[in-house]
């Protein structure tokens, strides 16, 4: 027995992505047995399609879509770090440009008033050499050296006999005192070497005939700075009355350890009186106001930190890339990646993930903890708007920024379609060969 069917229209099947499939079958005159077999085949095929559509959300992906990023930001369970999303706009660029790092000049309270004798003062830990010159009978005769009187110029005369004695090195104790034979304990902290000599001389005059005293600093601890980190010779650098600046002490420590690297990859950290400031080495070189005078007790750390940014999402490369330039804009960073992929990317949703200064985010109206110094934020750029390409040229990248290009919402459908094609193509080829 045969049945004649001209057309069968199968029920509509709609996926979670909004894709609707309509299957229309044209049949020739079939026997009941053939018809039942083919009906079972169609049911199996439709079941397979349903399973594939249901699994569309389980297809592999490189990251969230724009909608998923926005939904996650509003969901406290997913947004555990509390990031906000800010559109890149001219006002934002102006705000970011107005912000500058803590300058070294703000720490240099003596930068405009230079005391050329300040670095000649004595302090705890210094080692002094004291020399005493006497006429006639000497208090320090055990170590004296008798010198014949002479006058090379002929304009004056020296005593018939005189002696000089160099005392053993004297260390300034923690309270700023020294102990000198026949002079006792003398408080010298904060004095210059000439003042220390006068203090010793005043006490020796009562016991010695026409004494003269010369004091010099052998080991200058109080008037020094520590330079360490990525320099060739980390060391304590003594300061002189010439008043060294920060670039001077870095040079005295041998300069940068990685001379082949760009100065932009070096950061200088200055610690002064409990305050900390950091600036790129290149900024100090370009701005003389930041090449500040060193003060006793300063600590200078030279940090080698190549600046990088990372890239994820629908781009040609998922990579970590070095800046290699003093400054790098978002447009330049995107150009290095080859831009968003035409087949996968959503140009409306190009993001920069960053830990931004908290005061900037507060000015943007984002809720930030009072104690926070930095907070996470996501900057979004719509690259479908031509004017935003100008903003991308002015938006400067920071070290450790992360660029993410969101996947287009249709990306999963294309992946599903390719999967169906991969499954169906061998069967269609086999059917064609059977005919």
UniProtKB/TrEMBL annotation:
<keyword id="KW-0564">Palmitate</keyword>
<dbReference type="GO" id="GO:0046930">
    <property type="term" value="C:pore complex"/>
</dbReference>
<feature type="domain" description="Polysaccharide export protein N-terminal">
    <location>
        <begin position="119"/>
        <end position="217"/>
    </location>
</feature>
<dbReference type="Pfam" id="PF02563">
    <property type="entry name" value="Poly_export"/>
</dbReference>
<keyword id="KW-0449">Lipoprotein</keyword>
<keyword id="KW-0812">Transmembrane</keyword>
<dbReference type="GO" id="GO:0006811">
    <property type="term" value="P:monoatomic ion transport"/>
</dbReference>
<dbReference type="Pfam" id="PF22461">
    <property type="entry name" value="SLBB_2"/>
</dbReference>
<keyword id="KW-1134">Transmembrane beta strand</keyword>
<keyword id="KW-0626">Porin</keyword>
<dbReference type="InterPro" id="IPR054765">
    <property type="entry name" value="SLBB_dom"/>
</dbReference>
<dbReference type="InterPro" id="IPR003715">
    <property type="entry name" value="Poly_export_N"/>
</dbReference>
<keyword id="KW-0472">Membrane</keyword>
<dbReference type="GO" id="GO:0015288">
    <property type="term" value="F:porin activity"/>
</dbReference>
<keyword id="KW-0625">Polysaccharide transport</keyword>
<dbReference type="GO" id="GO:0009279">
    <property type="term" value="C:cell outer membrane"/>
</dbReference>
<keyword id="KW-0732">Signal</keyword>
<comment type="similarity">
    <text>Belongs to the BexD/CtrA/VexA family.</text>
</comment>
<keyword id="KW-0762">Sugar transport</keyword>
<feature type="domain" description="SLBB">
    <location>
        <begin position="224"/>
        <end position="302"/>
    </location>
</feature>
<keyword id="KW-0813">Transport</keyword>
<keyword id="KW-0998">Cell outer membrane</keyword>
<dbReference type="GO" id="GO:0015159">
    <property type="term" value="F:polysaccharide transmembrane transporter activity"/>
</dbReference>
<keyword id="KW-0406">Ion transport</keyword>
<dbReference type="InterPro" id="IPR049712">
    <property type="entry name" value="Poly_export"/>
</dbReference>
<protein>
    <submittedName>
        <fullName>Capsule polysaccharide export protein</fullName>
    </submittedName>
</protein>
């Amino acid at each position: 027995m045969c049945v004649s069917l001209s057309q069968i229209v199968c029920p509509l099947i709609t996926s979670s992505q909004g894709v609707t499939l309509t299957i229309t079958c044209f049949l020739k005159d079939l026997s009941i047995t053939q018809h039942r077999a083919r009906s079972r085949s169609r049911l199996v095929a439709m079941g397979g399609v349903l399973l594939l559509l249901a699994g569309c959300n389980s297809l592999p992906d490189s990251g969230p879509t724009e909608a998923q990023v926005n939904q996650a930001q509003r969901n406290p369970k997913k947004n555990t770090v509390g990031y906000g999303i800010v559109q890149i706009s001219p006002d934002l660029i102006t705000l970011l440009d107005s912000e500058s790092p803590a300058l070294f000049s703000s720490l240099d309270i003596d930068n405009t008033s230079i005391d050329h004798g300040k670095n000649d003062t004595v302090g705890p830990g210094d080692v002094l050499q004291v020399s005493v010159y006497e006429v006639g009978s000497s208090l320090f005769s055990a170590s004296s050296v008798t010198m014949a009187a002479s006058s090379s110029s002929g304009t004056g005369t020296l005593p018939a006999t005189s002696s000089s004695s160099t005392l053993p090195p004297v260390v300034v104790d923690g309270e700023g005192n020294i102990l000198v034979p026949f002079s006792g304990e003398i408080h010298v902290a904060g004095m210059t070497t000439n003042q220390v000599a006068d203090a010793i001389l005043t006490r020796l005059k009562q016991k010695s005939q026409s004494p003269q005293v010369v004091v010099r600093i052998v080991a200058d601890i109080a008037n020094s700075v520590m330079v360490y980190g990525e320099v060739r010779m980390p060391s304590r650098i003594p300061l002189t009355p010439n008043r060294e600046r920060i670039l001077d002490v870095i040079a005295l420590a041998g300069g940068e350890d990685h001379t082949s690297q760009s100065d932009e990859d070096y950061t200088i950290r200055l610690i002064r009186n409990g305050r900390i400031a950091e600036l790129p080495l290149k900024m100090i070189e370009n701005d003389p106001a930041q090449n500040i005078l060193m003060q006793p007790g300063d600590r200078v750390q030279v940090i080698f930190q190549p600046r990088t940014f990372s890239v994820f999402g629908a781009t040609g490369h998922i990579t970590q890339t070095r800046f290699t330039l003093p400054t790098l804009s978002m447009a330049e960073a995107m150009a290095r990646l080859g831009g968003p992929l035409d087949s996968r990317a959503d140009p409306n949703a190009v993001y920069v993930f960053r830990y931004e200064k908290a005061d900037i985010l507060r000015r943007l109206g984002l809720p930030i903890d009072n104690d926070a110094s930095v907070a996470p934020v996501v900057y979004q750029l719509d690259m479908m708007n031509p004017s935003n390409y100008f903003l991308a040229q002015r938006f400067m990248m920071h070290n450790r920024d992360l660029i993410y290009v969101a996947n287009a919402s249709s990306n999963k459908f294309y992946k599903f379609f390719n999967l169906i094609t991969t499954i169906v193509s061998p069967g269609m080829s086999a059917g064609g060969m059977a005919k």
